[in-house]
Amino acid sequence: MKHKHKWIGIGAGVLSFFLGMFSLALRGLFNQIQIEQVLYTSFGLIAIVGVISLALAVYYLRKGREAYVIYQTVEEEEANEKAYVSAYRFLDYGTVASNILMIAMLCCLVIVTSPVIENVYLFIFSLVLMFFSFAVANYCVRTIFLIRQYKLSIFSTPKEVLSFLNSYDEGEKQAEMENAYLTLFKLNQIILPALYILLFVLSTILQETQLVALLILIVIHLYINIDQLRKTKRYFK
């Protein structure tokens, strides 16, 4: 037993040594990396995602409209059903791409407002991307109205979205609610806890507490859990 404890102690010491060396190496690497390089690289990657999302959103929304027109005109039952499914599938793909485009646009705007970035062309690109984001969002809303016969605004309120969900048929509504529940569960039980671990690792390596990121993470985590009380108060009076 004594030998076992001895080897455990030696193993823990060796592991601590290598973790310390790894931490020092990473800290040195982070010190060599300039924030300007990180911001420019991040902007480039996000801009690529934005452009791809723009193309995909326009493509899928247009395909959804075309499929809906076929659904309205074709009388053959099998072709009609196929067009119906395609219209709704393409609409969902286009909606997701439109949302990703909006996220990319917001990220680009945040990056170009940094005092480190002094490139007017990136600022102009961000404004152009913002214009296309709102144009695609408007196109998406009009496509939703065409296919689902429900009018949404670009900046929909939670009440509007809930009313929109109630317009679904029972099968699709059930699938949507199951997907939302699983997404919320993964976010609450897996993704956010993993981000806590990531912040801990970064804080250890950089020898600096990532306070702002930690506070944002805590606020999101608390909101998700406290907001579930609305369901409890509503259904268990």
From TrEMBL:
<feature type="transmembrane region" description="Helical">
    <location>
        <begin position="211"/>
        <end position="229"/>
    </location>
</feature>
<feature type="transmembrane region" description="Helical">
    <location>
        <begin position="187"/>
        <end position="205"/>
    </location>
</feature>
<dbReference type="Pfam" id="PF11368">
    <property type="entry name" value="DUF3169"/>
</dbReference>
<feature type="transmembrane region" description="Helical">
    <location>
        <begin position="38"/>
        <end position="61"/>
    </location>
</feature>
<dbReference type="GO" id="GO:0004497">
    <property type="term" value="F:monooxygenase activity"/>
</dbReference>
<protein>
    <submittedName>
        <fullName>Beta-carotene 15,15'-monooxygenase</fullName>
    </submittedName>
</protein>
<keyword id="KW-1133">Transmembrane helix</keyword>
<keyword id="KW-0812">Transmembrane</keyword>
<feature type="transmembrane region" description="Helical">
    <location>
        <begin position="90"/>
        <end position="114"/>
    </location>
</feature>
<feature type="transmembrane region" description="Helical">
    <location>
        <begin position="120"/>
        <end position="141"/>
    </location>
</feature>
<feature type="transmembrane region" description="Helical">
    <location>
        <begin position="7"/>
        <end position="26"/>
    </location>
</feature>
<keyword id="KW-0503">Monooxygenase</keyword>
<keyword id="KW-0560">Oxidoreductase</keyword>
<keyword id="KW-0472">Membrane</keyword>
<dbReference type="InterPro" id="IPR021509">
    <property type="entry name" value="DUF3169"/>
</dbReference>
